Structure formats: structure tokens, C-alpha cells
Amino acid sequence: MHAARPILMMTRPRDRAEAFVAMVEQAGCPAFEPLFAPLFEIAFRGALPDMSGIGDVIFTSVNGVRAYQAAGGPRGLRAWCVGHATAQAATRAGFTAHSADGDADALVDWLAHAQAAAIRTPV
């Protein structure tokens, strides 16, 4: 009698859960039975506000970058991102991206200092 394979319950949105399972399998982790049970779904809706005059954007997730792209937001801006995955997605989407290494508090400090520097810098 074989022991049942352990169950890996995936509660993330289906596409991200499937990508994670593929990574785990490619890494040669022990066999498991994936159980997909998404608790939420990402739905891109609505339009962006007028973006004229905007030079920077802030992204807190890869899904935020995807939503911005789906809404047709302008590229080529500077993007301040919480983590590396988000910064990589923003770079692929055409932004000059900066990562706060996954530290939301560091991102807030970074933005506060950037704003203070912009205020002090004459135009």
C-alpha cells in the first residue's frame, strides 16, 4: 500500500498558483498533489485617471503592474516598487524601476526622501 502524496493547497489566483506549482516541480521537490482553491481572482477594470504631468508611479505588486498595463497607462516613467519581482515586472513593462527589497517601510521612507529632495530642488 502506497502512502498518499501530501497535498499542496494553492489559494492564490489560479495563474499564479499554477506557475508556483510548476516552479516547485521543476526544482525537484518531493511529489505532491496540488489542490487549486483560489480564494480570490484578480480582475482588471476601469480606466486610469488623467496621467499627464505624472513622472513617477508606485507599484506594490506584480498584479499592479499588470493592471496598469491592461489599462493602457503610459510607460517610460520611473517606478518605485516594494520588491524585486514587482520591479522586474515594471522593467519588462518599460519603466525605470527601483526596488525597496520587499520592505514597505523602506519604500515609504524612500518616497518621503525623494519628495523632500524634489521640494528642495529648484526647477
Key phrases:
elongated, three-stranded parallel beta sheet, 123 residues, disordered C terminus, alpha/beta, 39% helix
Structure commentary:
39% of the residues lie in helices and 16% in strands. Helix 2 (62-70) runs parallel beside helix 3 (84-92). It has helices spanning 14-26, 62-70, 84-92, 104-120; strands at residues 7-10, 33-36, 56-59, 78-81, 96-99. It is elongated, with a radius of gyration of 19 Å. The strands form two sheets. The protein has a three-stranded parallel β-sheet. The chain has a two-stranded parallel ribbon with strand order 1-2. It has 123 residues and is an alpha/beta fold. Helix 3 (84-92) links the parallel strand 4 and strand 5.
Brief summary of the model shown:
The chain is of the alpha/beta class. The protein has helices spanning 14-26, 62-70, 84-92, 104-120; strands at 7-10, 33-36, 56-59, 78-81, 96-99.
Secondary-structure element sequence?
A: EHEEHEHEH
| Strand order, sheet with most strands | 3-4-5
How large is the count of helical segments?
4
Report, as a whole number of angstroms, the end-to-end distance: 76 Å
Q: Uncertain regions: pLDDT < 50 for 5+ in a row? A: 118-123
Query: Count of DSSP E strands?
Result: 5
Please, what is the average pLDDT?
Answer: 84
Approximate helicity band = 25-40%
* Shape annotation: elongated
Class by SSE composition: alpha/beta
Largest sheet: 3 strands, parallel
> Radius of gyration from the CA trace?
19 Å
Query: Strand portion, in percent?
Result: 15-25%
